């Protein structure tokens, strides 16, 4: 049942153009992911003595390339539909590039004070120094700007693939939850969904309703706090688990930095674990209970947390491994990983709220109303 529908399908466009764009995004992603996976396997088969870290690095690189290429059609389709205008985003990217140059210059000055021999500057005249300084500044500005735009396109790819899947699957998931409440014997689909959303046995899923919140009209930094905080928390737990895992026998500083380098390269995957929760919060999907309604958003969040945060295991791993890892090395690697994750998670969350959330919610509501008793997505 749909209650209080907060605005229908976006007046800017109908569902069909977005569905066509979804097909393009998914086709590009799956095609290049398949090609890069095959190329990776062939390369690893031909090259002898390939280490596990090299194999993982190649796989992550192929996945990042696939998401980036999928981000191109997503960016072309959605760039003019954001709540924050594209020109302002480019202005932010420009200011961020300038700030990065200033931070780099300050870092070099500080490093030169502590390590005078780290940088060697030849004797230059005033004119030569001006030319070198100007060219270096321009080169750094272009490099930082291109890096920011690359992360933006990658974020469009990650969020575009995620939303394309959600637009197709979420109406079916909601309908399937309702159907599972009326069937005598639960199918594997029904049991999986009931477990995933942590639905109590005492509730009747047939009372599920959706009550979408008002369409978002702006993106505030406060809106990004909760999703980004969850992604950072998941990243910390993942970093602790991987770096302290007793199955990794090499505990040298170089090996630990290599682990954190791989984690940093894969930081763009973590938003795929967190952001899908928030469409259920936007939809207000809930099941009626005797005391209060059971929100699917809270259910799936609780289930993921229960499955992911094995507190006892983490504590045990820390106790086993902390004596074998230099704390300074671990903190340096963790800090670099969290910095990359902060940028990646903030960018993906902003792209999701700014470009995708409103239309995704509208399309899911429309799909939920029109869905019939299908046996598959």
- Unreliable runs: 4-13, 372-376
Please state the oligomeric state of the protein chains shown: single chain
- The counted number of beta strands is 2
Q: Whole-number average pLDDT?
A: 83
What is the rounded distance between the termini?
19 Å
| Shape by Cα distribution | globular
Compute the CA-based radius of gyration: 24 Å
Any idea how many domains?
Answer: 1
Number of helices: 12
Query: Taking strands numbered 1, 2, ... along the chain, how are they ordered across the largest sheet?
Result: 1-2
Short summary of the structure?
The chain has about 375 residues and is mainly α. The protein has helices at about 15-45, 50-80, 85-115, 125-180, 190-195, 220-245, 255-265, 270-275, 275-285, 295-310, 310-320, 325-370, and strands spanning about 285, 295.
Description:
By secondary structure, this protein is an all-alpha fold. It has one domain (15-370). 72% of the residues lie in helices and 1% in strands. The chain is built from 12 helices and 2 strands, in the order H-H-H-H-H-H-H-H-H-E-E-H-H-H. A two-stranded antiparallel ribbon has the order 1-2. Helix 1 crosses helix 4 (126-182) and helix 4 packs across helix 5. The longest helix is centred in the middle third of the chain and has 57 residues, at 126-182.
Question: Notable features of this structure?
Answer:
377 residues, mainly alpha, two-stranded antiparallel ribbon, 1% strand, disordered C terminus
List the helices and strands and how they pair.
Elements lengths: L14 H32 L5 H27 L7 H29 L11 H57 L5 H9 L24 H24 L8 H13 L5 H4 L2 H7 L2 E2 L6 E2 H13 L2 H11 L5 H44 L7
Antiparallel strand pairs: 1-2
Helix pairs in contact: 1-2, 1-4, 2-4, 2-7, 3-4, 4-5, 4-12, 6-11, 6-12, 7-12, 9-10
